[in-house]
Amino acid sequence: MENTKELRTWLDDLKLDHPLVIAGPCSAETEEQVLGIAHQLKDTDVSYYRAGIWKPRTRPGMFEGVGALGLKWLQKVKEETGLKTATEVANRAHVELALEHDIDLLWIGARSTVSPFIVQEIADALKGTDKIVLVKNPVNPDLALWLGAVERLATADIKNLGVIHRGFSTYDKSKYRNNPEWQLAIELQTKFPDLPLINDPSHITGKRDMIFDVSQTALDLNFDGLMIETHSNPDAAWSDAAQQVTPKTLIQMMIDLKIRKESDPEAEYNTNLNNLRAQIDVVDNQLIEMMGKRMKIADSIGGLKKQKNVAVLQSKRWNEILGNMVLEGEQNGLSEEFILKMFKAIHQESINHQEKVING
To answer: Name one GO molecular function term (predicted).
Structure first.
């Protein structure tokens, strides 16, 4: 991943005075639907019109896209609205058809990114192209696998590259469809600041009422743009209905989202400060979620102790935990005083949870 400054050129060439916005329906359903949404977005901050032509579905029998016919509809979008077009590709045949129909931006989906074989096949098919190619993170939180896909494309002499952060699958239930794991995107951004980074709040949230907040967090973390699914009648969408917003909602969202950049001499300071504060907010939210998980485990321990009539406080176990955490804290630059205060508070909350269980 050397000479990454070349990778931002395509984004700079757009000369936008706002973050890049890629928007359109999850799936192209009918020509009328595709063109209708496009005409509502043509005079907005949307630069690329997206539509899924081939849909990788979790289970067979679900709607898997209209296929190559939808590419002709995207051609009409470009002719009638001037919007550039974008779609997902998952194999060589998809690539060849997309290039034949002059699609401007192609992205590799999360399920494809997990397979170096698939990525290499796509890279070979795209070798030397001047089209923009974006790589979604793999479904699992593996930064090396994500970057490996980008490297395969770069090795194929594809200059206009970028990545899409769409969150990661997790066994644990949470408020997100795909856990954002912001720290991975932050680490990628830190290592390769000139690699364009786009956020996909639709797939992270899975719920339209959360899209704005996740989009704002992404912009606070200096993401370069957003990919948002929009549909004229979201509830009737043939795929991912719950995470799509109407064009009207999207347009208002683009107005309301705050780009925290100042035009005074303090601009760089303010931008950096806001970015760091956004990172702290992300970590704080993760701490709260982890504490919630810890207390659920404490509840289960309380249940076991109730069955065996065991005392809540186990001093030997507590002292072992405290000693280990003090050592871990030192290795992470945390004072013994802080560790003791924090874990005593956590221990007390854990005792409270267990006593509630034991006392019914």
So the answer is: transferase activity
pLDDT digits (tens, 9 = 90+) for 246-255: 999 999 999 9
H or E element at residue 92: helix 92-100
The whole-number mean pLDDT for each consecutive block of 10 residues of the chain, a chain of 360 residues, reads 66 90 97 98 97 82 86 98 98 97 98 97 97 97 96 96 95 86 91 94 97 95 96 95 97 89 62 79 86 90 85 82 87 87 86 85
Percentages (nearest 5) of helix, strand, coil residues in the chain: 55, 10, 35
Reference 224, options 253, 195, 251; nearest CA is 195
How many helices, marked H, and strands, marked E, lie in the chain? 14, 8
Say whether domain 267-358 belongs to CATH 1.10.10.10.
no
Dihedral Cα 82, 84, 86, 91, nearest 10 deg: 110
The residues facing 38 across adjacent strands are none
Read off the tokens for 159. 């200059």
Given CA atoms 271, 274, 279, 282 in this order, what sign does their dihedral have?
negative
Compute the half-sphere exposure of residue 298: CA atoms within 13 Å on the CB side of its CA. 20
Third-level CATH fold of 4-256: TIM Barrel (3.20.20)
- Dump strand ranges (E) for the chain: 20-24, 46-50, 84-89, 105-108, 132-136, 161-165, 197-199, 225-229
Which part of the chain is CATH 3.20.20.70? 4-256
Query: Count of CB atoms within 10 A of residue 96's CB?
Result: 13
Residue type, 170: T
- Size (the chain), residues: 360
* Cα angle value 164/169/172 (rounded, 5°): 145
Strand-pair partners of 48: 22, 84
